[in-house]
Design brief:
By secondary structure, the protein is an alpha/beta fold. It is about 15% helix and about 25% strand. The chain has 2 domains: about 5-90, 3-Layer(aba) Sandwich (Rossmann fold), CATH 3.40.50.20; about 95-205, Hexapeptide repeat proteins (UDP N-Acetylglucosamine Acyltransferase, domain 1, 3 Solenoid). The strands form 4 sheets. Strands 5-8-11-14-17-20-22-23 form an 8-stranded mixed sheet, with helices on one face. Strands 6-9-12-15-18-21 form a 6-stranded parallel sheet, with no helix packed on it. The chain has a 5-stranded parallel sheet with strand order 7-10-13-16-19, with no helix packed on it.
Amino acid sequence: MNRRVLVFGASGHGKVVADVASAAGLEILGFVDDDPERRKAGLWDLPVLGWEEARARRWEGQRPAIALGIGDNRARERVFERVRASGFEVLTVVHPSAVVAIRARLGAGTVVMALVAVNPDAKVSEGVILNTGCVVEHDCRVGRFAHLSPNGALGGGVEIGDRAHLGLGAMVLPLVKVGSDVRVGAGAVVTKDVPPGTTVVGMPAKPLSPRSA
């Protein structure tokens, strides 16, 4: 694995990803961001580069890998495709305090933050965020570019669709299916299947009415 890393995204989420990568023993060379104001300001004592600048650099003969530091699911998906098409390695980063079962699988570009648990035969797809302290139980399926917020929990056999977002402390009960592009509110408890594109809130979770949206 390439030990030299650029974090794509110089935002608050990017800071956390950089910290996870540092804790995992990787060398952070800097950040990449499309926002010229962030590039001008820099971050910590590290440079913030534009994507074209990062691509053009020689990097002493070895390109760094890219860790995804973007919180928005669709934006992270677009950046993943851009980075991979340019021939950079998209890194999977796991905090050393996380517990990932030997028989669990993590897709490229996934970030596993501190105190996460991923149990046997769980399959986590590309570009997923498993945020601080969340739990992915046995036999779960987490779709591409989904985001499980801090302290979220999936019971055994749950299926999470592409780009779905579970809010802070949200829970999904065993064997429930959550569709693509679903948004689950903070603290919600999902007790039954949720169709794609729906926003659900509450205990038990129910669709948000148009008036409340």
